Amino acid sequence: MAVETPVQFIRPNEPKPPWLKVRAPGSENYLRLKGLMKELSLHTVCEEARCPNIGECWHHGTATFMILGDVCTRACAYCAVAHGRPHELDRAEPARVAHAIGEMALRHAVITSVDRDDLPDGGAGMFADTIRQTRLRLASCRIEVLIPDFKGVEASLHTVLDAGPDILNHNIETVPRLYRMARSGGRYPRSLELLDRARRHAPTVPTKTGMMVGLGETIDEMVSVFDDLREVGVSILTIGQYLRPTLAHAPMTRYYDPGEFVTLKTLALDRGFAHVESGPLVRSSYHAHEQADAVLSRER
């Protein structure tokens, strides 16, 4: 009988490979945006999730706004965002986000949130209000929403889509086998169903999703997910390296090298995705405007 090889984990003190090293943020524009976010009491996933691209993105004047507060009702094993009992909703938050987007004169804004399973609509109404407020403030800005699964409530998804986002993003995150370990509050079939429902309800709005590698998945499992995503019509896929935020989070099994990300991109494109962003530092919102340009110009 074959004996399974034990999974090897990256040691906490093991140095990162050179392709994962980034320059510490500190440009003039980065500092300006940091000040603006503090002044308007806004949260960004760039800061809360400790994104390694924060220096590059903020230097170029782009950011991913995180609405519905900074405390998540779920405790996913890979995520650095705080979890617990959230604060009361801040009904003025959508207007402040729209104001910040206007001040930054963004061409493409990404709006995401923590999970708010404590709310009847999961926070969908606040997403819709933020979209509408942004349209009033800066009509030329393209809006991408990165939404939670709303516990599978279809009406909440419709609330967001009916507000008219340009891109609908919901991250599948990992392969089905690892959901219980990494994403205990989520369900793989539920996420696939959300993406399928989005395509059916708003067929002109491209759907997008993201995956992490380094949690113990296999290439065959990744490819199987690619096939599932294409089956429900996903247009844009991002693939990036999972980086363990703290010792309390899920351990990494290994670092993928840049060549492996090229292979994954090729495998995904072979399955018909309109755009694939794949690399060690890729995150869901990394180069989001370029991803949208590639898909929306192709669909016109």
Question: What does this 3D model show about the protein?
Answer:
The protein is an alpha/beta fold and 300 residues long. The protein has one domain (27-299): Aldolase class I (TIM Barrel, Alpha-Beta Barrel), CATH 3.20.20. The protein is built from 11 helices and 8 strands. Strands 1-2-3-4-5-6-7-8 form an 8-stranded mixed sheet, with helices on both faces. Helix 5 (124-137) links the parallel strand 3 (108-113) and strand 4 (142-146). The protein is globular.
User: Oligomeric state of the chains?
Assistant: single chain
Q: What is the overall shape? A: globular
Report the sheet with the most strands, covering strand number, pairing sense and barrel closure.
8 strands, mixed
CATH hierarchy class name:
Alpha Beta
Number of DSSP strand runs: 8
Query: What is the number of domains?
Result: 1
Helical residues, percent: 25-40%
The number of distinct helices, counting runs of at least 4 residues, comes to 11
| Structural class estimated from helices and strands | alpha/beta
Q: Within the CATH hierarchy, at the fold level, what is the topology? A: TIM Barrel
H and E string: HEHHEHEHEHEHHEHEHEH
- Strand percentage: 5-15%
Spatial ordering of strands, largest sheet: 1-2-3-4-5-6-7-8
Q: In CATH, what is the homologous superfamily? A: Aldolase class I
